[in-house]
Fold this sequence. Notes:
It comes from Gimesia alba. This is Leucine Rich repeats (2 copies). It is a single chain. The chain is mainly beta. It has a domain at 763-913: Ribonuclease Inhibitor (Leucine-rich repeat, LRR (right-handed beta-alpha superhelix)). 9% of the residues lie in helices and 40% in strands. The protein contains ten helices and 67 strands. A seven-stranded mixed beta sheet has the order 61-62-63-64-65-66-67, with helices on one face. A six-stranded antiparallel beta sheet has the order 53-54-55-56-57-58. A hairpin with a 2-residue loop joins strand 22 (252-256) and strand 23. The longest helix has 25 residues, at 2-26.
Amino acid sequence: MRFWNRTLEISLILCIATLANNSCAEEQELFIQQWGLASADRVDDYDPESGHLLTRHQASAVLWDVKTGLALRQYPFNTRNFSARFLQDGRLLLKSSEMVRLLNQQSGDVIRDIDLVKYKYSNYSNILLINDGQPVFVASCGPETIRVWNLETGETLSEFPTEGEISAAKISPDQQFLLAGSGNIGILWNLKTGKIQQRFCSPNRIHTVEFNDDGSKFLTIGSGEFWYTPRVIVWETASVLPLLSIPRTALYASFVNDDILLNYPQGNVELWSLDRHEKAPPKDEWPTYQSSADNRWWVTRNHWRLHVDSKQKTISLHGPLPDSPTIEIPTQTSLFAAANHLPLAFSPSGRWLLTGKSGWGDPGQPSAIWDLKQGELKYHLKNIDYGCFHPTEDKVLLKENELRIMDLTSGKVLQSLQRKKGDSYFEGAFTSAQFSKDGQHVLISTGDWYDGNGGGILIWNLQTGKIERDYARSSKAVIYAGWSSDESKIVAALTTGNDGRAGIDEIRVIDAKTGESLQTRMFPDPGIGVGGVDPLGNLISATVYKWIRNKLTTNGSTRQDTTSLLAIDNLEQSRADLSGQHLFWNVSGSIAGYLPNRGKLSFFDLEKNETLYSRATSFRESPRLLFHPGQLLIAGSPGNPRQSVGTVSDSVGFEQTLTGDLEAELFLFYGSDDWLIKTKSGFVNGSPGGLHRATSRVPGTLQVSNRADFTDSITRPKAVGKTLTQSLSNDLNLKAELQRLPQQDIPSLAPTPKTKPQKYGDPTKRLKEIAEKLKAAGAKIKQAQFSGITYVHLEGHPVTDDLIKNLRWAGKIDRLYLAETGITDRQLDGIGILKDVKRMSLWGNPITDAGLSELTAMWSLEVLDIHDTKITAAGLNQLRLLPGLKTLIIPASINVNDLAPLKTQRPDLELLLR
């Protein structure tokens, strides 16, 4: 009895332990580390307190833990062109040109979206934090309005009139002013009155503005004479006078106490004091810097620097200051992203799958042969963009720059075909290849589709290893060639090439013995695409497109694709046209799948000439889709599920044919031979490095870890293989199964045309109107074909506020004569923002030092005549930072000795007293 009780006790303990383990397992979910910092599009923000880094990867923001090198969460967005940042209280903010999104950092739930399109929004600025951390967003809406939102409530706080699009904005520390950049014009608004406090001119387009801690100064950053010569300029807020121009190639800058922190492209930083003045070097001596994909420096919005060295395989995070500490980030999962690879071919039984790059991909793209039965990668390859399996499934044909036949058991190359000088097919490339039914021959098409140097068709005899037929030569490139059902005919797709598009304009049927052309069908608009011949060898698909002009002309046109099925015998249309593209066949050729629009997959019955069933899909439109021979799975390239944004593939996915569930994903990784297979059931298989990316996460949290015990518990090669080889049983029929399914209401994910932001009116018409206004006011003007009005002489004629305002849009005025026009200090505000003026006269006007301060940023000014005015030496000293100033004509009453600050800064300046 005692023995029985002891046994029962042990059993209960084991049962409780099992339940506890199962409970713990249920608290964990599989989270694949498919991103890499070396593959990021940009690095946006870093939170030193939490150690979280925010990066952009295509159409998603990704949150990282720098201590572990693990990705914590992905936040899909509506575009690839966006930026992201951390906010207080565990929130994130994503912003694009169409939307601002506030979301919960931990759960990823959206808190608020602000649709900017309805405001005729044209650009986006910085995110501002004021008072108690309340986030405020500023954007220019249309050509004449700046709008400020409270992101917590979505409420519009205020609107100000402006000119041009806002490229950067900041609120002063005392919340009194809003500083914004609009092109090369800076604008300072009074937040209480909504009126412009001051305008100023920058020598470059302003892309960043920053205040110092007390708001007494601000800086602007923008590109200089060239993209690699950015300028940092420090200004005094009260007077908007330039205090310092820093002649360094700095991409980012901020205030640190009384110094300026400069971030250079090479990754180093420097503190620059406000009293350090240096003359800019000549244009040809500016340092240039070309970024390298192998050695990249990223700078976050708060000036932390991320360094990724892909060759040394290291990642480090550096603090903002020169003596800041460095954090080394583990690279086991965080260095390289999953690679772009596409499904290329299944073997006849469905055991083997070839994946590789698209024909337009860069060299170095990973490719692979997968043993689906064993649930593992068999061979890791490079740069394969086409291939097919031998009918006996013991060999595979691979196309790169050459054709080679590889043994699937040993991995050895059995035969290869290279293009050699002297061969008739030396020019161009191998564009397609396929085995004959008996496996003894290979049908090959060749052509130089890029330069249009012609092409042809070859038959390679595998028994002799030689080209048996070299015929059907053409002045056009042959992009594809396929056999008819009895292999007596060859159907070929041809292109004139020479435009880099490989747009097909002809399909031709050729006698396989003689090479004689039997049928030809021409297409009037080059640019159609063709699919492969169907499994029965009777049909070929041809996709044409046309542009449909939208009702609103501002919406442009929408591309409409239509796919036709053509009979190989006569190239006549054999079935109904199908909307969309990417036709692919089941193993018997009785059903074709196609994508009528984004996010929708349809199945077409070739016998009844009708669509059987449609469902939602996560597969993208651009790469090919393939039926697994077992018919229960479809291989393709998943995008972000149900998102209306196309993303570059980072996996090959298997969708369940009937339900659309994503059953499995196959990952390859750049920079290594690592691979990983993940299934819907949560089981994985992979290489050691690939399995390291199979991490566990507590659902709804940011708790992610890569514990070995979790990985071991879910690594099940047999379960993976079973998932990848699902097949319809012999007593089931795919057509019957599709017909049993209830029809779905599938929302279209096709992009909806949006009204384009309203720009300023027709520039030619506007320029003509301005010229007429100037002439009516008595001005003499000169115009250039591409520069607009370049010369304006108004001396002796009164000017109005409206006339001065129009000078900004008149063109590149480099000669401006306004003597004795009655212009006032207030009106000089509109003159000081003209960035191209080199010679200007203002003599004989009632202007003072206050008005002269408006001209302190006319960086192109070389000669200025201001005699016979009320300007003093104190006012002239304000011009000391103008880099191009050569001659000043000033009142004779001025004591030259009082111009010491000006002469010290500009010793070569010529002063003429009159």
